[in-house]
Amino acid sequence: MGLDDIHVGVVNGNGNGRALLNEIARLLQHLLETGESASIDLARLPLSGEDYDLLDEVLGEGEVHAEVSALGATEVVETGVPGVWWVTHYNADEEVMAEFIEVAFCPEILRSAAEDVNEGLEALRARLFEEHLSG
Q1: Which residues of the chain have pLDDT under 50?
Q2: For the chain, how far is it from start to end, CA to CA, in angstroms?
Q3: β-pairing, 65-69 with 84-90?
Q4: Can you tell me whether residue 6 is helix, strand or coil?
Q5: pLDDT confidence of residue 8
Q6: Residue 65's domain spans which residues?
Q7: Residue 98: which H helix or E strand, with range?
Q8: Which CATH number belongs to the domain containing residue 88 in this structure?
Q9: pLDDT digits 0-9 by tens, 55-71
Q10: How much is the pLDDT for 15?
Q11: CA–CA distance, 68 with 85 (Å, rounded to integer)
Q12: Predicted structure pTM score
């Protein structure tokens, strides 16, 4: 047996991208069954550039793209798989500070807090009252 008899294959990435995609599928099933969302911190996983490429290729990009300005910029992108969101937080220098895959009907950062909705209601009522007095 010589070197020509040894078959060598190249494996892209370390396989964590495929494992992560299987976990996302499991979390989507859980979301549908329970309504409970989940978040995966990509920085805590040993993902290679090839793993990120696989995630990009398989998940794709959906129709929703939102930018949130709260304690720095946050980009929320719906993937091509409804219910799976790619959320990236940036610092003032536009460097990635945190990156998550969220499995949810709507990402938490896009949901209005009850206190904010209450303040909005009060502000709307005040405007309507002012308009009624001036009108």
Answers
A1: 1, 3, 6-12
A2: 96
A3: unpaired
A4: coil
A5: 39
A6: 7-108
A7: strand 96-103
A8: 3.30.1370.140
A9: 999 999 999 999 998 77
A10: 83
A11: 14
A12: 0.79
